[in-house]
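How a chain folds remains the central question behind the approach discussed here. The record that follows shows the chain in one-letter code together with its fold in token form:
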Amino acid sequence: MNELRIAELSSGSVEYVDTGGDGPVVVFLHGLLMDRTLWDQVIPSLSPRFRCIAPTLPLGAHKHALKDQGGLSLDGLAATVVELLDSLGLDRVTLVGNDTGGAVAQFVVRHYPDRIDRLVLASCEAFDNFPPGLTGRTIVTAGRLPPALFGVFMQQLRLRVVRRSPMAFGWLTRRGDAVVRGWLNPVLHDPAVRRDAVQLLRALANARPTLAAASEDLAKFDRPALVIWAADDKVMPPDHGRRLAELLPQGRLEVIPDSYTLLPLDQPAEFATAVTAFLSQPAH
């Protein structure tokens, strides 16, 4: 049974779901202005065979404001992931990242490669695609505002027509608006979470060079790796999926049709099948 828990880390409280069990551990990382519920339709398919852990990272949809904002960067978020692993007594895991979670996963691999047995990157920021597309540019630009004005800007997303626009989540998911609406609650209602979000967005505004370097460093990750890309992605270029798969020494590309960036929302069954098949293959 999925159990919601809280890890007390150096930066603050991090919620996570842990299915438990003795199987290989799979850690799922979500994107910007999202939380662990991105994976709610995927984890039930994997949990009979794998221990699935899905944290809510401080990416703007977290419910517990941070006590220390020093880790609000891609490097800092990678350190938060590893600190969570340490708190759970986990040495090596499979890491699965979608959207900005895939960027965080690349930084985990860059700084802590010995902690990762296998890697799954799913329609995510890579190379020079940061901030990604119209969606990313809009939210990072909004992050230049003072937190109070950023809150005013975000109030527009209460309206479905705004959420579904290309400047918001319209090009990220075809089918997930109900989930998206829930992700926005913390940043709409909690001033401290808004301050975290603004701090993060300001740090991410300058992240392109370090992300490009982290992506290129994947050439050193000689372990099983799967790249899953959405065939209809309008935010993450399909060519980046091919480049990542070619760059990874043991990389393989799988393309899933009829989906935008957020594959776990648009095609959860197909996504879970691809990940399960990958995890079931023996390592070389």
